[in-house]
Amino acid sequence: MLNAEISRRRDAAISRGVGMQTQVYVSRASGAEVWDVEGRRYIDFAAGIAVVNTGHCHPKVMEAVRAQSEAFTHTCHQVLPYENYIRLAERLNDKVPGNFDKKTVFVTTGAEAVENAIKIARAATGRSAIIAFGGGFHGRTFMGMSLTGKVAPYKKGFGAMMPDVFHVPFPADLHGVSTSDALTAIEKLFKADLDPDRVAAIILEPVQGEGGFYPAPAELMRGLRELCDSHGILLIADEVQTGFARTGHLFAMEGYDVAADITTMAKGLAGGLPLAAVTGRAEIMDAAAPGGLGGTYGGNPLGIAAAHAVLDVIEEEDLCDRANELGSRLKQRLSAIRETVPEIADIRGPGFMVAAEFYSADGSAPNPDMANAIRAEALNRGLVLLTCGVYGNVIRFLAPLTIPDGVFSEALDILEASISAVKGA
User: Fold this and answer.
1) Which own/partner pairs from 69-75 qualify as long-range (CB within 8 Å, at least 24 positions apart)?
2) Which of 86, 178, 200, 305 could be cross-linked to 68 through a Cys-Cys bond (beta carbons 3.0 to 4.6 Å apart)?
3) Is 395 helix (H, G, I), strand (E, B) or coil?
4) Looking at residues 163-182, what average pLDDT do you find?
5) Which listed residue (45, 137, 170, 352) is catalytic?
6) CB-CB neighbours of 25 under 10 Å
7) Catalytic one among 267, 358, 397, 408?
8) Which residues have C-beta within 8 Å of that of residue 331, sequence separation ≥ 6?
């Protein structure tokens, strides 16, 4: 079986709205490596978009799923509940940042977690308006894409967005937007268009994902917390991509001196199984009436079992420290490459949530062509990379945190060779 053959079948059978970054059809995966149907090996620096932080098919995660599958695979927690759902909620209530009592609800996807966070915020405050940030990504559901601060491809062609959603700029020094600009934009919004007494929540990613891996400055988090407290607004941290050791903390918000009222999570939570959660202040989480939250597959037993194993692996293998170590090594290598490749305009990101942004050599404009050419060249050499950013000019690095040193060094060599080849061309 060939990749090209499957690709032709895919074109005939699957909606073109499902975008594809590669035509590599996987047959098996282990750790930080995948093999396609033709037997070719790739080093995976995507990790399913920050999902398999503990690596593909981690033995402890696989064993937990196997054991649960032999007991039962589904009952719907709202019909016949199970203890490990409650125990995982207890663990998250303890681990999510914030020195206050918390409660949790489990759903299936990151977008669903965001949707429910908005529902909870509106129920708790009796307000409807939501403030989000340009460049942010919060999912492809209608509320998710309404909150997302990027039109193409997420909003294009889908008509009017959900009402009462407002966007302000997100700080990015490279693009000339400061923390002061962002906070001032909110104040201007309150003066011109939006009564702050109508705002239920402000939502942001501690590090923007699809938007380009821009970390939220500490001054922004403090400023948002002060704004929220002064106006009775809830602060929602979307940790769908930043969660579960990726940034060198279990949650990125641990790196700030303020806490969110509600936290959304998914991706790395269950090591590759679909599971998401919303955790927040207990009194806020109880605002919805019974039956107002949940879903048939929310907190599926297999995902719950996998998530327990993921949390154990992160602790036992010190993956937060490992993220910081890998990220530091990657940044050092990128900095060395940058000495002869001025198109690398910025290297950033906490832990092993690292990105390199590409501009023209004279620094005058974003350079998506070079970023995409490097991605394609690396793929040809056996390294899977992802691009992101509002301009498509950012390469993001999301390898599993369990990647062995030898494989990691091999990947960095491929990355440097790919950048050199594109630069030379």
Assistant:
1) 69/302, 71/301, 72/301, 73/300, 73/301, 73/302, 74/297, 74/300, 74/301, 75/301
2) 305
3) strand
4) 97
5) 137
6) 17
7) 267
8) 347, 354
**Residue 386 main-chain phi, psi, to 5 deg:** -125, 145
Active site residue 137: yes
305 closest CA partner among 70, 48, 114: 70
Task: Tell me whether residue 251 is one of the annotated catalytic residues.
Answer: no
| 263 φ/ψ sector (left φ>0, alpha ψ -120 to 50, else beta) | beta
Q: Please state whether beta strands 234-238 and 262-265 pair in parallel, antiparallel, or not at all (unpaired).
A: parallel
Bridge partners of 234, per DSSP, are 201
Catalytic residue selected from 238, 251, 261, 408: 238
The residues, ordered by sequence, that sit 6+ positions from 51 with a Cβ below 8 Å of its Cβ are: 267, 268, 271, 272
Q: Catalytic: 238?
A: yes
Q: How far apart are CA 30 and CA 311, in angstroms?
A: 19
* Band of pLDDT at residue 21, cut at 50, 70 and 90: confident
Average pLDDT over residues 337-360: 98
Letter string b/e over residues 263-298, b meaning 16 or more CB atoms within 10 A of that residue's CB? bbbbbbbbbbbbbbbbbbbeebbebbeeeebbbebb
Distances (CA, A) of 401 to 87, 98, 247: 25, 25, 10
What are φ and ψ of residue 50, in 5° steps? 65, 30
Between CA 279 and CA 291 the distance in angstroms is 17
Query: Which structure tokens are listed for 7?
Result: 């690709």
Q: What is the pTM of this model?
A: 0.97
Helix (H, G, I), strand (E, B) or coil at 356: strand
Q: What are phi and psi of 170, to 5 degrees?
A: -100, 140
Nearest CA to 215 among 228, 224, 223, 204?
A: 204
pLDDT score of 140 more than 90: yes
